[in-house]
Design goal:
The protein has 1086 residues and is mostly beta strands. The chain has 15 helices and 62 strands. The strands form eleven sheets. The chain has a 22-stranded antiparallel β-barrel. Strands 25-26-30-29-33-34-39 form a seven-stranded mixed beta sheet. Strands 1, 2, 5, 8 and 9 form a five-stranded mixed beta sheet that branches. About 3% of the residues have low confidence.
């Protein structure tokens, strides 16, 4: 693999003469006329005033000019000069990232006395973009209310973007895994695909870059420029600050503690969430930029340290925890007794440690004006972070060993050269290397023991099954070069963007063994029989047993790592045609070639077995390196030639990356290097707490299968969609309006199948209706077709073309000269999909894709990213006062309202007998059907539903069948969705949690003064997130944080029988995110 990678790098270095995938610069262009005639040979000089950087161009035979590769921002002074004509000057020009500002003009004869000077401000509407895009500058970043100081906070005012409180981003209803995030042109999204927020360092709670270093951010959803690629969701391009001729920088600090977090407030299921204690968070840093050689060589450096510490909110016995404390404590005592009897050390202490996140960020950037035609830059950055994960949740209490520190380190190196080869040819070249190292630092080697349905939650002890051996190394190389040729009124671009990857992944799930009990009763039953020596070999005590290990005789290493290389090569050509002075047409073709460099290990016995089944798969298949074409066309029409009414849009295909973890599953799970056992309801199995003793249980279960196989269709394709966009930017009554429509049709997305299970031809209602189950529940039943073979599960990854998203938005903005800026927008979204790809593991992507039909051919349903309604508004007021205008006050208010997270209700248990617990959507019975359903008695545990139905003080030794029927009738009858869909299946993500309303506030007081002739300033700020909750404890509640949440209040007990305890039936608030939170800040700028 290393030889192939070296060969590809060498080949690309030799052939790279064109490319630019994600834009890092800006530009200007225009047409120069005099008395209606084109001016040939006029000289355009653009000077970046802070650094003295100069760019020049000359108009061609059509009077046109273009300068690309310019520094983002400004201010610029642009002059247009021609012999015999008055020089035209544009002052205070500010350039947006990735956009080309139109500076056309008409020169006047030099004999006229009037000297014309044009002061260039912002156009009425954005007159340069073609597709849906937004630019955000450093001032807007600084004024945004934020505690996390993250990308999601800054980008959230984009109408097409929906964010979670934890920082995950969905654009226009698409998966957060399908986004692209670039810093100075280098990929900084988590290309392996494990981070929820989609960026490097995200799993350690770190932001990929210090926001204090950002010059501009560009957000793209439908860019029809073929240079933009690598995403089917949205793209965020960030450009960092550079040095100038003046030394400048900042020293800053932000912080909060428990006194800046809302005190107790009412919970939905009764009681109060108490005031926090020991909350502490601070973010401190320094930046410094300046000249090394005036007008020639500049530097910009930064350092930032972040430390967050807050208490575990969900400790056992707290009002936030839904877990029954008495039962949980009894479990701990019994587990300790089992460990003692087995003579092993097994931790039973619960995780009560404070949760922490720590990070350090360092960066250095050099900019070199080699001469007027060549500019170079070099940047290095480091993000080193650690976060305590898995400390617990409302529905789970975790052992101290179950929690683990997640460590992440990212190093990035970027080099770029901008060249003006001739008056009509420009070139941009870039190379980058990103090195990511992630590790779960567990505290010891212990089996995982999980007991579900302990009251309203679970008890998790030992080591998390996915953390027993989990480390990831990523190396990402990017090679780019962009050649632009200006010919008349055409701008031709020819390019190639090339990303090369090397992944090494240690991932051995269930290495120490994993035991899952269905509920407290089943665990107690096991314990009693174990202590009494009466374990029944025919009885199923344990609901699920899993064990996996490396086959040392094959791997030579008990901690075997899978490793593979990959690449995505992109080539494109484009013409931007200024057909008239007010109509621009852009059209081009992009070709992406995905390459997987290594072949997974062959499993010959499986290949022969698969052939007998007619599956047409084998483990040693590599993806075909077939080209994926992305034709695009876009237009922009300035209807009245005054930048007040602009119609724009286009259509095109977008090809993204896919999370490479989905590919890595096929290298790790060939059935050769790893043996795994995944057995539902094994009979007579012992709970062994010795991590080295799992072979004993494995030997008992070998006849049930020991190999989980992952394969993919050889013709599997990366994610692609066809996207249409129509936008109208207009200015009416001094208000800038933007109407946007986006429709995306899925061309290729993921589809998972488990080939080990096939339909029996019978339905659930047909088989179990006689036992009281609803006959109308006609979901198909399945049987295992690999019984008697060593193949437990066979997961196949292929493609589907089902799915689409629709997004409509309207946005209004108004600027007042006295310092007030207003904005409001509304967005409607409908997102439909087959599989949301929410997991990193093939098993989970199949197992937890909720369905009421065939899990191997799931129905089209609402996406986990379907947020139908979103309203945003902002108001910012800036005022300068004092004798020298040295005082400035800024007040900002942001209002966001949106539909809550989409959610599903499913059974806990295997209803359709496909071997998966938890992928069967709930059948919503009528009262008559409930009367016939058979419920098994279970222990009583008070919760919100039992209190509502039977009274606050009601207690009973058992929940009888009649009590469970009464609770289910009340639950369904009072649910807005279910009461209108009785006798039907609960469709995937068919309903959304309660509508949410949030106000965020930013206050800043600045005092400016001069030191050595240069303006310095001191600013004190105070941000309040969810400020409405400060005014009223019932405001600002968040019911679920994430894309797609799910509940399983009904237990399916096999053979058409059920249990319903009322747990998980209440939609409670998120404790932390439902409170107001404040942060103080102090920034000194010089």
């Amino acid at each position: 693999m290393q030889k192939r990678l070296l060969f590809l790098i060498t080949l690309l270095l030799a052939m790279t003469t064109t490319v630019m995938a994600q834009v890092t610069t800006s530009g200007i262009s225009g047409k120069v006329v005099s008395q209606g005639e084109d001016v040939i040979g006029a000289t355009i000089t653009a000077t970046h005033q802070p650094s003295g950087t100069v760019y020049r161009a000359v108009t061609n035979i059509d009077g046109r000019y273009t300068i690309q590769g310019m520094r983002v921002g400004g201010p610029y002074k642009v002059t247009i000069a021609y012999i015999g004509q008055k020089t035209k000057t544009f002052d205070n020009v500010t350039l947006r990232l990735g956009e080309t500002e139109d500076l056309s003009c008409s020169l006047q004869d030099d004999t006229k006395e009037l000297q014309e000077v044009v002061v260039k401000g912002s156009a009425g509407v954005n007159a340069t973009k073609t597709g849906a895009a937004q630019s955000i500058n450093s001032k807007q970043i600084a004024d945004m209310p934020s505690i996390t100081h993250g990308i999601a906070d800054v980008a959230r005012l984009n109408p097409q973007l929906t964010t979670t409180n934890s920082g995950a981003m969905s654009f226009a209803g698409t998966s957060n895994r399908y986004n692209s995030f670039m810093i100075d042109g280098a990929a900084n999204n988590d290309v392996f695909g494990l981070s929820g927020d989609g960026t490097n360092g995200g799993r350690a709670g770190a932001q990929p870059v210090s926001m204090e270093t950002i010059e501009q951010i560009q957000v793209n959803v439908a860019p029809f420029d073929v240079r933009q690629g690598g995403f089917t969701g949205g793209a965020i391009n960030a450009i960092t600050k550079s040095g100038t001729n003046n030394f400048h920088g900042s020293v800053y600090g932000f912080g909060n503690n428990q006194n800046l977090v809302g005190s107790k407030y009412p919970l939905a299921d009764g009681g109060y969430a108490p005031k926090f204690n020991k909350q502490q968070e601070y973010n401190i840093g320094v930046t410094l930029g300046g000249p090394i050689i005036k007008d020639k060589l500049f530097f910009f450096a930064n350092y930032e340290k972040t430390n967050k510490t807050y208490p575990n909110l969900y400790s056992l016995g707290s009002e936030q925890s839904a877990v029954d404390a008495a039962k949980a404590n009894d479990i701990l005592v019994k587990i300790a007794d089992i460990a003692n009897r087995q003579g092993v050390n097994f931790p039973t202490a619960l995780s009560n440690s404070d949760i922490y996140t720590k990070s350090n960020k360092v960066g250095l950037k050099l900019d070199w004006n080699i001469n007027e035609t060549n500019k170079a830059s070099l940047r290095w950055s480091l993000v080193d972070a650690v976060q305590l994960n898995n400390a617990g949740s409302r529905t789970a209490v975790n052992g101290s060993s179950y929690a683990f520190p997640f460590e992440s380190t990212t190093n990035s190196f970027i080099a770029e050269l901008q060249s003006r080869i001739s008056p009509s040819v420009a070139n941009e070249a870039r190379a980058s290397y990103v090195r990511v190292r992630d590790n779960r630092a567990i505290s010891g080697e212990y089996p995982n023991v999980t007991i579900n349905n302990v009251g309203g939650g679970a008890v998790n002890l030992g080591i998390d099954r996915s953390s027993m051996a989990n480390r990831l190394d990523q190396d990402i190389y990017t090679l780019e070069d962009n050649l632009t040729w200006y010919k008349g009124n055409h701008t031709f671009t020819f390019g190639t963007h090339n990303e090369l990857y090397k992944f090494t992944n240690l991932f051995l799930q269930d290495l120490f063994g994993s035991y899952t009990f269905k509920n407290y009763d089943s665990f107690v039953s096991y314990y009693n029989d174990y202590v009494n020596g009466t374990i029944d070999p025919k009885k199923s005590y344990i609901n699920l047993y899993r064990y996996g290990h490396a086959n040392v005789d094959v791997t030579g290493n008990p901690r075997w790592e899978s490793s593979f290389g990959a690449a995505q090569l992109s080539f494109y050509a484009q013409d931007k045609w200024d057909a008239t002075t007010n109509f621009q047409l852009t059209y081009g073709l992009r070709m992406d070639i995905p390459i997987i460099m290594d072949t997974p290990t062959a499993n010959e016995p499986f290949a022969q077995y698969a052939e007998t089944k007619g599956w047409n798969v084998k483990t040693n298949q590599r993806l075909a390196s077939s080209p994926l074409f992305s034709p695009r066309v876009g237009f922009r029409w300035d209807i009245k030639k005054d930048r007040r009414f602009i119609l724009r849009g286009g259509a095109g295909v977008f090809t993204g990356r896919i999370p490479f973890v989905w590919i890595s599953n096929n290298y790790a799970n060939t059935g050769i290097q790893i043996s795994s056992f995944n057995v539902n309801s094994p009979t007579g199995l012992d709970l062994l707490l010795d991590p080295n003793g799992q072979e004993a249980n494995a030997n008992k279960l070998k006849a049930l299968g020991s190999q989980t196989i992952n394969v993919y269709d050889r013709n599997f394709k990366y994610a692609q969609n066809l996207r249409f966009n129509l936008g109208f930017d207009f200015n009416v009554l001094g208000i800038n309006w933007t109407a946007e429509a986006i429709y995306s049709k899925t061309l290729n997305d993921i589809l998972y199948e488990n080939l080990a299970y096939e339909q029996t031809g019978k339905t659930f209602g047909e088989v179990y209706g006689s036992a009281g189950a609803p006959v109308e529940d006609n979901r198909p039943l399945f049987s295992k077709v690999t019984a008697g073979s060593p193949y437990t599960n066979v997961y196949k990854l292929s493609n589907t073309s089902k799915g689409y998203t629709m997004n409509l938005s309207l946005k209004a903005e108004k600027h007042f000269d006295f310092g007030l800026d207003l904005m409001a927008s509304y967005t409607w979204t409908k997102a439909m999909s087959v599989n949301n790809g929410s997991s990193s593991v093939a098993e989970s992507n199949w197992r937890y894709n909720y369905t009421y039909r065939n899990p191997n051919d799931p129905e089209l349903g609402y996406s986990a990213y379907n947020i139908p309604h979103r309203i945003q508004a902002s108001a910012y007021y800036h005022i300068n006062y004092g004798a020298q205008k040295q005082w400035q006050t800024t007040v900002g208010l942001i209002y966001q309202a949106k539909s809550g997270s989409p959610y599903s209700i499913y059974y806990y248990g295997d209803v359709n007998e496909d071997g998966a617990n938890g992928n069967d959507l709930f059948f919503i019975p009528t009262d008559a059907q409930i009367d016939k359903m058979q419920f098994e008695e279970t222990n009583f545990s008070a919760n919100a539903l039992t209190k509502t139905v039977f009274g606050d003080n009601f207690t009973a030794p058992k929940l009888t069948a009649d009590m469970q029927r009464a609770m289910m009738k009340h639950w369904i009858g009072n649910d807005s969705y279910m009461k209108n869909h009785r006798g039907e299946f609960y469709k995937r993500y068919a309903d959304n949690l309660a509508f949410e309303h949030h106000f965020d506030v930013h206050f800043a007081q600045k005092y400016s003064f001069k030191v050595g002739g240069q303006i310095n300033s001191l600013e004190l700020s105070f941000d309040i997130i969810n400020a409405g909750n400060m005014l009223n404890k019932n405001w600002g509640h968040t019911y679920g944080d994430g894309f797609g949440v799910y509940y399983s209040p009904v237990n399916y007990q096999r053979n058409g029988r059920y249990q319903f305890t009322g747990g998980y039936a209440t939609r409670n608030y998120s404790d932390y995110y439902s409170r107001w939170r404040g942060q103080l800040g102090l920034r000194y700028t010089f």
